[in-house]
Amino acid sequence: MANATVDVIDAKGKKSGSVELPASIFDVQTNVPLIHQVVTAQLAAARQGTHKVKGRGEVSGSGTKPFKQKGTGRARQGSIRMPQHRGGGIVHGPVPRDYSQRTPKKMIAAALLGVISDRARGERLHVVESFGLAEVPSTKTAIALLTQVATSKNVLVVLERSDEVSAKSVRNLGNVHVLFADQLNAYDVVVSDDIVFTKGAFESFVASKSNKEEASA
Predict the structure, then answer these.
(1) Which of 211, 214, 210, 217 is nearest to 3 (CA)?
(2) End-to-end Cα, the chain, rounded Å
(3) How far is it, in rounded angstroms, from Cα 189 to Cα 156?
(4) Does the predicted model carry a pTM greater than 0.70?
(5) How far apart are the C-alpha atoms of 8 and 15, rounded to whole Å?
(6) Residues 154, 139: Cα–Cα separation, whole Å
(7) What DSSP state is assigned to residue 15?
(8) How far apart are CA 188 and CA 182, in angstroms?
(9) How far apart are CA 153 and CA 155, in angstroms?
C-alpha cells in the first residue's frame, strides 16, 4: 500500500510542507486484544505494590493472656494481639508484592504501531514545525496552534529531547500530555484523542522504527 502523507504546520498555522507516513509504521493492523494486554501490563507495572498490614506478631500489645483460662465463663483467649480483638493483627491482609507482568518487546512494539496506526487512519495524527515562535518559547503560540490542528480534549504532544523551546511552550497546558519520541507508548496513545508530533520528533520516531525493522529483517 502506498504511503500516506500529512501536512506540516508552522508556528503561525500555515502549511510549510508535508511528510510521508510509512505504511509499515502508520498503516499496521490494529489488534485490540493485544493492545489491551499491553496496556494492562503497563498499568500493572506502574503499581507500587507497597500496601501492608500488620499481622499478629507485628502489632503492639502484651503477649500475656487477657484473663485466666478457666472460671470466667468466657471463651479462652491467648493474647490481645489476636485478630478477633480490637487493635489485633489482620488475617490474610495485603503484603508488599510486585504486580509487573512479563511482556515481550515485540508485543509492546506491535501494540504501539497498531494504536498509532489507528490514530493516523482516523486523521488524528498531526505534525508541526515547532511550538515556539522564532526560536523563543511561546505558550500563546502553542495554544493557538493546538486549537487549529487538534480540537479534542486530550492531546498528546511528542517532542525531541533537545527541543527546549517547544517543551517550555507546552509544559503548562492542562489538556496536553508531553512525551519525548523515545518514550512513546501504547497507553499514552490510547488515552489521547490526538497526537501532535514536532517534525523533528516525527523523523526521529520513524527512523528508530525503520532501523528496528531493518535489524529484524
Answers:
(1) 210
(2) 19
(3) 7
(4) yes
(5) 6
(6) 17
(7) E
(8) 13
(9) 6
